[in-house]
Amino acid sequence: MTTLTLTSADVEALADADGMRAAMAAAHRALHSRSAVQPTPHPLPASADRAADAPTVVPMAAISDELGIFAIKVLADAPRNRSLGLPAQRSTVALFDAATAECVALIDGRALTRLRTAAVTALATDLLAPPSSDVVALIGAGPLAAEHGRALMRVRPFTEMRIWSRSGPRAEACAEQLRSGGIPAIATESRGDALDGAGVVCTLTPAQEPFLARRMLGEDVLVNAIGSPPRPGFSEVCADVFAQAHAVVVDDIAVALAESGNVRGACEAGALDPARLQPLGNVVAASDGGRGGLTVFNSVGLGVQDLYAARLLCERARAVGAGTMVAIRS
């Protein structure tokens, strides 16, 4: 049997925001109905270094009885790579036939992860954002921020996309990239300028210390906390945001409690009772997030999201003859 291999360039050509968002909705409905299951990942230290930013390897797995497939993503998270001009994360997704255990596909995880992450945020925003929201603040200006700008515009006709980064040139470059695609994006001089009056706020940074406090936000606002890698030592959102939120939605409760620095920090500070956490699958199944007031959506990424994203890409690739078929077993 041959195995389909897809590069990140292949993934970019095959994926679209609407299709990926629909796949993520299906993934979370499957989690809700238990037709798909996933273990909570257990990060493996990649060296003897135990510092908060030491490199780790995170195996992320999921299986779908309904689809008859399982997937494993191996994620290498190395925050110090940024200082070397290298990607902080590298990953590969392997998709298998559950009945035969044959490897159906090998997919580079860079574009897949970025696209499915933005799609999940767009899905949550569609369900949770206040109806009157017309301004988005993107805190961060990397590729994930630009992807979020594109994905969010597919679910709501936002009138302004504000981008702030500690690097002004990067913020302007991100805004220009979005403007070239017809999105009304601007770079702001300060974080406060970006947040002022925003109905949707997306944190998309690798911050180790929380910076987004309740006093910076309006009354009716959705905070999408996305940027922190899957490790407790990184956090973007202050505990008082969780304390005063009328709803806290996470991609998965067990994974959030194990891997999210935002959620764990708020719980340890006594600002968040874990019993208040709602899984996104419940919201998707109900098709109503109960909008209004301050809402937080916190995401660290799931194996089941990778599985459904990989399935979508494989279907698209087979339909158009994309990718490369390789015989990895004789």
Automatic annotation (TrEMBL):
One of its GO terms (molecular function) is hormone binding. This is Ornithine cyclodeaminase. Gene3D superfamilies: NAD(P)-binding Rossmann-like Domain, ornithine cyclodeaminase, domain 1. GO terms for cellular component: cytoplasm. PANTHER family: KETIMINE REDUCTASE MU-CRYSTALLIN.
